[in-house]
Structure formats: C-alpha cells, structure tokens
Amino acid sequence: MAAVWAPVVGHLLLLALLPSTSSHMVFDLGGNVYPTGEFHATMHIGDPAKPYFLHVDTGSNLTSLECKVGSKVPHPVYRPTRDKPVPRNNPLCNALHQDVGEPEKPHKTVCNYEIHYLDGSWSHGVLIHDKFTLPSGITKPDIAFGCGFEHGGSHETTTGVDGMLGLGRGSVDLVSQLKRNKIITKNVFAHCLSSKGGGYLSIGDENVLSSPVSWVPMAPRTDRNHNHYSPGPATLHLDTKSISTKTMEVIFDSGSTYTHLPEGPHAQLVAALKASLSKSLKEVRDPSLLHPCWKGPGGFKSSDDLKKEFKSVMSLKFHNGATMIIPPEKYLIVTGHGNACFGMLGRKDIGDMCIIGDITMQDQLVIYDNEHGRLGWRASQCDKKPKSKSDIFSRM
C-alpha cells in the first residue's frame, strides 16, 4: 500500500513546494503566414472565463479586444461591465498615454486611447481591466487592456482574431503587467512561428537567456523608436552582394504578416533577385496580389519546393557583427495557385526602416530580453512546444 501512495505523496509535496504563481508559461499559437496572415494565442478572459483569439503583436504595447457590437470576430464580442473601466487618473492610464500619446479628445473620467500602428491602421477605445486565466489555472490576475470601439486603415490581420496581444516595448504590455503582478520574475518572452503553421509563445522563461543565439543590443528608445523592438541598424545583402550602401533601422514586428522595406532598397533587391533566377521560372500574376510571383516548371506545392528553384540567400548584417540569415522560404510564400510570391513589400512611408514580419521570423526562436536590453534569435523547430511548469498541474 505504501508503494501505491508514494507517488501521490511525492506529487503533493511537489505541489506544496511550487509557488502559487508560475514563473514560466507557454501558449500554443494558431495561424500561419499564408493564407491566414496572422499567428494568435488563445487567451481566457473574464469571470467566468471565455476564450478569445489574440493576434501576437510585438509592435503594439497594448492588448486589446474588439468590443464593437456586430463585429465579425470568431467568438462572441467581449462585453465589459460598468465596474471594469480604468479611471482617467489611474497610473496605468498615464503610462499608456506616455506610450501611445494623449487622445485628441481625452475623456474626463475614464481612460480612453488612440493607437496608430506601423501598417497605417488605427484603433480607438477605452482602457478596462478584467481577469486573465493563465495556463496553470491557479492565478487569475487583473490585466488592463483596451476595449476597442472604432478602428480603420489597412489592417493586415484578418477577422480570424478577436483582438491583439500587445507585447510591445512599453509600460502596459502584457509581460510588464505579469511581472508587476509577480506572476513572472523576469520580463523575458520569446515566440517561435512555424512555417508549417502554429508555433508557441513562451513568457517568463529564463532558460532561453542561456541559449546559443545571436544577440544584439536593443536600440535606445527614441521618439521614432518608442514602443518597438529594434536591434538597431543593419545592411541588406543578397548572397555576397550588398543591396544598398545605406543602413536601415530594423524593427521586429510580429503583428506584420510580411516584411516591409523602403522603396529604394526594395526595388534594388527585386532587381538583384530576378537577375539571379534561372530561365525555367516564369513571372506571373497571382490573386494574392503579392508581386512579383513566379511559376515553376511543375508548380510549387510547399516551401521545400522553393529550395530547388531559388538559390539566393538574403541576410541582414548588424553593427555588432551578428547576422540574420534569410533563406528563400523566409522571403517567399507558396500560394494556393502553386506560385512562389515575394513576401517583402516596398513602402514609401517608412523612411529608412526595415520592418521584419512573420514571414522572415518563421522557424526561428526570437527572444525579447527586457532584463538585459537585448534581442536574440536562432533557428528552431517551432512546431515542437517546450514544456512548462504548468504541465505538472495538467498531468495531475
């Protein structure tokens, strides 16, 4: 009988020794670059908790839910109660406005906001708070987030999500709030986006800091680079050829599906890429509206087929000597029509910035170490989720 009870007693002792909060949590991600256009985590919000799909966005420091009645979202629209708004004089409201700026028409009693995103879209709403049920299910902290009533602009996201999971470099982002609530001990998180679809988001895991990765210091926060994660300036190369003598300010933005380049370097890159291709590829138009696109001799069925026809490798070389390698499967997508389309877009309105989107982050563990002010990345199998302490409870 003692032998039967020994494992149970062991588990009970383990539970007694573990803290009531989790210092490390892992969320499964759904979605893909194409055709979904986003990666999302399922967050359980409210009491009783209800599930919502939130687009993982390192370019926004505010988590938000769509609250407009009639919105086309996967789950029933979140309905806040009257006792949930964050007051206008609350420190969280002041912190939010320091991050995103004061709204044109500030409310007298509640904390309203206006956010403008890198892709030109915008959102208006009210800051509220509600309970978030975390993976362990034990702690349900109150987290402040935006309840959006108006939005517009050229959203890259689809109606496949209920809102945004703000992980940007700010004061009211989810990770900062979890640390203030003593749910995690370190302001560290990492995401791994799989080219097969899905992936995972890890929050508070200190083990990733000792991983063999390419580390680059975070660029200082400035008026221009205020809420964004930037490893600083880099030069763009195609194979051994430098695309431009000018450096670009790189920004990591998981809220962008594709990677964005200034018009000049983009045109130079496309010209250099075309010159490197074999005559077996034919340039075609594709319903995805991406450009340029190519048809191969037998068409393309998966990213593995890209390697047979596209040999050129891109790279971003940073000031400290670190390099981000960008093989064909991280700058091309295979569409539903069997074409290979270029997943880097040229833009007039971003100056000399290079916005690294999901397509280029695929199959890489990207680490945001706010404790030491650095960013890191390494090749990884993102379809294999690591274990967390919460797994102990899920197996009991």
Automatic annotation (TrEMBL):
User: Catalytic residues per the record?
Assistant: 57, 253
Which GO biological-process labels does this protein carry? proteolysis
Q: Which PROSITE patterns match?
A: ASP_PROTEASE (PS00141), PEPTIDASE_A1 (PS51767)
| InterPro entries (UniProt xref) | Aspartic_peptidase_A1 (IPR001461), Aspartic_peptidase_AS (IPR001969), PEPTIDASE_A1 (IPR033121), Peptidase_aspartic_dom_sf (IPR021109), TAXi_C (IPR032799), TAXi_N (IPR032861)
Q: Which keywords appear in this protein's UniProt record, sorted alphabetically?
A: Aspartyl protease, Hydrolase, Protease, Signal
Matching PANTHER family: ASPARTYL PROTEASES, PEPTIDASE A1 DOMAIN-CONTAINING PROTEIN
Membership in a protein family: Belongs to the peptidase A1 family.
According to UniProt, the name of this protein is Peptidase A1 domain-containing protein
Organism, by scientific name, is Panicum virgatum
Its taxonomic placement starts with: Eukaryota, Viridiplantae, Streptophyta, Embryophyta, Tracheophyta
